[in-house]
Every structure is written in C-alpha cells, then in structure tokens.
Amino acid sequence: MAQAVNERLAAALVDRYVIAGELGQGGMATVYLAHDLKHDRKVALKVLKPELAAVIGADRFVVEIKTTAALQHPHILPLFDSGSADGFLYYVMPYIEGETLRGKLDRETQFGIEEAVKITVAVADALDYAHRHGVIHRDIKPENILLHDGRPIVADFGIALALSAAAGGRMTETGMSLGTPHYMSPEQATADKEITGRSDIYSLGSVLFEMLTGEPPHMGKSAQQIIMKIVSDEARPVTELRKAVPPNVAAAVAKSLEKLPADRFGTAKEFAEALGDRSFSTAATRAGRSTASAPQRLSALQWAIVAAVFGLAGLLAGSRIGRAVAPPPRDMRFTLTFPDSARFVESFGPSIAISPDGKMLVYTGGSTTHRELFLRRFDDLRPTPIAGTEGAYMPFFSPDGEWLGFVANQRLMKIRVSGGTPIVITSLLGNIVAGATWSRADVILLEDVSGLSRVSAGGGPLVLIAPVDSMHQLLEWPSFLPAGDAALFTVTRKGVASLGLLTLADGQVTVFDGVQGTNATYHAPGYVTWATGDGVFVVAPFDAGQRRFTGPARTLLDHVAVDGGAAKVAVGPGVMVQVEGGASNGRLLRLDRRGNARPEIPDELGFDSPRYSPDGRRIAVGIFTSNLAGDLWVVDRTTRTLQRITFTGSAGRPEWSRDGRRIAFGFLPLPSSSWEVYGAPADGSGSPDSLVISPGTDFPYAWTGRGDTLIYLHQSAATRGDILYVRPGSAPQVFAGTPANESHAALSPDGRWLAYVSDESGRREVNIRPFPTGAGRWQVSAAGGIEPRWSRYGNEIIYRSGDLFLAVSVTTRPVMRVSRPDTLFRGQYPLSAIRASYDVSADGNEIIIVGPIEGVRQLTVRLDPLAAVQATPRDR
To answer: What is the pTM of this model?
Structure first.
C-alpha cells in the first residue's frame, strides 16, 4: 500500500519534485527526501496523512499556511513551498544535514547545563520573533528542533496553527493530536480555545527540563496519565534531579512550567533573559518550591472523568477538556463536545440532568430535527441514546437514580435508566412544563399552564396545588427539599423573579425576603444553589429543617445563561455541568412541506412568533434580547432589512390586520408582569396604542376582515385560558363559552371559522367552531394537537402534535368537512403554550419558523464545585 501511495505521489509532483525516498513518519505527515527540479536542491517534502487532508481541504490549507511562510529568522526553518496535488496536501522545507534534538537526547540523555541553556535561548529568540508576528508554534518538542552544525533550528513553525485553522477547529475529529503529550501546556492538554505564546513557553520549558534532567517534567505509562499529571501535578524542581543547575536557571524553568499561563513569563524574550540573569529568582524558589506545594492528586471521580475524556493520542473526537484554573483551591473544568450523531442540542428549560450519585449525565441531543435523550456516564467516552425518548426535553432523575423523568408529546413520562419501555405518568394540558422534581415518596411536582401540580410517579391525574393567580403570577422550577413535604421554586411578580417555598400539605407559598433569582436547588448536606437576577450562579447555606437560609450567598459562576427562567446549569455530588458557548438566539427559517429548511435572513437573533403579512412581502416578528426585554420588528423579504416598530417596554407575538396596515401585538409595560394588547402602524409611522387592558394577561390572535373586531387570549386568576373577542365601544365577549382551557386561536381567511386548541375532549386537541357564535364543534386533530394555522385560501389547516407537523384539508361549504390528518414532516422546533410559534405562506407551501442555532452550545464540567466556594465569597 505504501509503495502505491509513493508512486501516485511521485506522479502528481513529477514536474516539480523528484522523490528520492522516505525519511520518516510522524503523527501528521510522512516526510520524503526530494529533489527540487526548479532550484536544483535537496528538500524535505512533508505530505499530510490522507485522513487529516480530508478534514482540512486543499484550498483552506494553502490559504492558512501562507502566514507561516512569511517568517524569516535564523533559528526558524523556512517554508519553501506548499500546495495540493492529486488529493495530497504537502509543504516543503530545506533538507538539513544533521540530527534532531530528539536524536541527540536519545543518545546522550542529558546535556551540559551551558549547552542546554544556549539551545533554549536560541529557540526562545525564534519564538519571540514569531509571537511578535502573530504566529504561535503549538508543537514545540525535541523532534521539531533541528541541530545544524550545533545551531538549533525550529521546524514546522506554525504548521500546527495552520492545520488547526484550516480544519476549522475540527482537528480532534481525526483522532490526532496537534501536540506531543510530554510537552503540552495545561491549556493545550485541556483543549482551551485561546492558546497564546505562553503555551510555547511552557513547551520550551519542558524541553529544557528534559535536557537538564534526562526526562520531561511529567512521565506516565500512558498518554492519559501524562496529561492528567500536566493538568494536576506540579513538576519537580530541576535541582532535585540535578543539584548543579544554577538557582536562576531552576527558577526560570519553574516559572515557565506554571499551570496558569498568566503566572509564566510574558514573552519568550523574558524567559531567555532570566536564563542569563544570575540574580533571577521567584517567590516559589525563594521559599523552597519543593516544600511549598505538594502535588495535588485527582479524586476518584476526577480520575474517571479525565480518563474518559482523553484518548491515547490526545483529545479524541466527541470530547474535549476546558480550561483548568490554578489552585487554591483547584478548579478543574472540562469542556465536552460530542459526535455529530449525539451532539448536545438545546431545548426549552433544563437540557441537562446529573444523577443523584454524580456519576451520570443525561442531556438532550441529536439534531434540531431529531432530538432525544442521551446518557453519558462520566467513566465512559460514548454517549448512549435512550430509546423511546424521541422529542423529549427537561430530563430529571428519581431520588434513587434508577428512573429518568421527562416531557414529550404533551405527556409526562418515565423510563428506567438501565433501559426499557417508556411509561406514561400522566397527560398534560400542553407541551410546555417549566420544571419538574421527584421526591423520595414518589411524588412529582411540576409547573404547567395551570400552576404547580403534583402527581404520583406511579401514574394518575394531576392535582393542582398552587394555581397561577394575580398575586403569584408565575410559579416555576420547583425543587423538593429532602423530606419531600416542601419545595423551593421561582415566583415572578411584576417581572422580578424571587425564590419561594411551597408547603405541599396546605399549598402555602412563602417568598424569601430579598432573595432574587431562579432555579433554586437543594444539595446535601445543606446548600441551595440558584441563578441571581444578574446571571450570577451562587450558593448559600440552607437549613432544610427550619426552611431558611443561614448565611450569605457566594459565587460559583460569574455568569450563567438563563433562558425562559431556566438557568443552564446542573449540580450533582462532586460535579457541575454548565451550558456555555453562545446566546440562546435562533434563525428565522423557511421550511418546505417536507421540512427542508433555508434561512429567511442571515441574522441570528432572539426571534419569536413570526407572521407573514397578508401580501407575503413582509414578516412581523418579535426580537427578544432577554427573557422579557424585546421589541416588535418588521422584516422586508425583498431587501432583507429590519425595521423596528416599538421602542419601550417589551413587545412581541404579532398579528397583522387583514389589510396589512396595522399590527396587533402583546405588550409588557415593564416592570409589570401582565401582558396587554397594543396596536401600531406596520410602517412605523405612528405610536402604539392600547387595544385591550384587563386585570390579567392578554395576547392577540387575529383581526376580522374589516379590522373592527379583535380576537385575543385572556388569562387571569379565574381562568387558565379563554378566547375573547371585542368590538370598538363594546365589552369583550367569551368565544364558545365552554369551561375548557382554550388557546391557539386562528381565524379562517373568510372570517367565518375559528380553529383553536382546547381540552374539551380530555386532552388538548385542535377544533373548529363557527365565529362568532361558537355553535357546533368539529375536532381536527386525532391524537393531540396544538398551534393550528390556516392556509390563506382557507382549504387547509396545518398543526403540530409533538414534533410532527400535520395537515388536514378543510371544506366549509355546503357543510363543514375535515379530512384525516396527513403527516408532512417531523421537526423539533420550539413550541408555544398559548399561540402558534410559526406561520404558513399564502399557498401553504412554506412555513416560517424560528430554528435554533446549531453548534453554538457546549457543556463544561467542573469538578468539586462547592470546594471553590470559600475562595470567592460574595454576599448577595
């Protein structure tokens, strides 16, 4: 096979280079001795491994490697040429007669101190020059330092950077490492995204350490052991291994090998100067480094996690480790990524859950069109899909860790962690549940559109404990205390979220004075964590028996994402997992009837509830910058420009008038927590005016053809949801007048029929009634449904059931007829509890919807999170 590759390569380069033979192979390339025909000289021709070349691509590689070609320094091996030929990616350097530093070390083991320092100073000079020109080597090791007539020359300078940039950060997908484990800096070993010149300084310090002592700073039987020592153990002082090393050289080596980049030399020049300055010392060496800090060992859990996320040759596909923060106390962080087939995908509310013993992570994953739950044990590299959880979100564990609860397709479900068939616990009024928690008495407490309810984990009906009312506007994100007789939760009043306590026996709600935030969770032996209003994740001591805080809050994370009131972080015994890596915005997408998606505009913003204008040329949409702050905008589909319509309060959930001149929308005059219905000219020429104000929450659904009647949703202490309509100068009237919970209204194009969602039949289904009389009812959906939208011709209704998009044909004359539902496609897009989150084009062939941004989120694991509390006190 090797001979065949050589012949093909030789044929591809026959007009430029004549290949004389193979010099050797490394992790990234095969090196050949070749003759440069144009310049009549010997050269070293390096050809990237085929699997690596496939990841990078020829054009991108050639562009990125140009940066390194500009480096001209006496201690840097120049780059003569680079390119692609017949699928091969190659670069060409001078052929140096001599040996590598590795060859000399293998032969001599240790160098004279003066010689070792001289070589290091020369390499440091090359590094300083490159760093000042914006190039970091990233792979300093004895194999890349050539000795030509005793003069060190650094080879492959910047090649690792070019390869990483060309691969778009996907180098780990090849299973290859861009650094040799013995000489990796801690930030390289932990896959930090921001590698600076101080990483090269660490690697050069490791090379000097080996030249002086005969071995690298950290040794191990495997790459995993070496990497774990780089991250967790301090290197031994060189004077312990070689007493003749001068104090300033020992101090310089120690400083170059600091774990935290900020504690190393600022430049390679400073490193070189310290090696020549006999007066140089550090605080550590003056105090006696060997006794000042003993090596810190990983706990059993830390060992399992580090071993799981590292591979033999470096960082494997599907898992990375993030930045390790220097002690005290040791703050170990690991950033996880996943294979494409099991990548992390955001969903509403908590997307991650940690088992009660801290050994397992469950997350929502797959893709935006096929989401399911995945289980990843911290001692295993491979995420495992949990069969039967398609479309699931909000995972949560039973107290014994044997069961996993979740929400899917308007049902509360559970499944054994060990595997099995999912079991339905109860049906839900909607698919939006803001938190669920499981007690030791096998009671599940959850929040839905009605308020906080309880249900037996063995199955049964929901029992409402604390309904949503005018005083407690929102009661969300419950978390049981250990005894199971009370739960922490989030209460939102007038736009301000605070922590509260619910007593299950009597439904009594108590709000903790002055404790603002969301997602409070109790942890043994006596702590509560939560996210504050300014996005800081904190912990405070809590007496579960007395049900009160016993001390001030202290910071765990300076910033945590909060989406829809849910903090994107989970804490378990000895471990914390945080969702990071981008805002929870989305893209405005167009879907065809098969679910194929195209971006409507390139912007990635906090879009919400898009609506086509009657002529289809514009789109009204809310754009939210936080949970409550947002404005109404109009997108011109021709010019792709956005025009802002509102400038105060918070606005969204738009609906066009039939003539396209006005837009009704929900308006939240902050800090109020009650939405009102306002209207504004669609061209932004006038100020918004109030259409509906009531003691409750209101959102618009539709205007009749002449614009004299507004249909809207009304929620209050007395009703979970009613569809109302109002004419100018008249009092609002209730549509249909049933005792059912109603929402998601959509008016037919002729204004004669209203499609809506209600639980009249025992679960939420799409129905049709004549408007405004409400006399008679035709059920549209067959197995649960929400979010109906009419085609503009009135002959079809599209609706959703779980992650399915379905369509029914509708004939209204001479009599109402509804066909059986046909499935259009499956797509896991955000759902709305009260109104359709998407719209349908006039011809019914396109859907405008908000889709999440893929690949912007990552999971960061932090070990022993509560151990860091004492280091960063913060009174709240």
So the answer is: 0.49
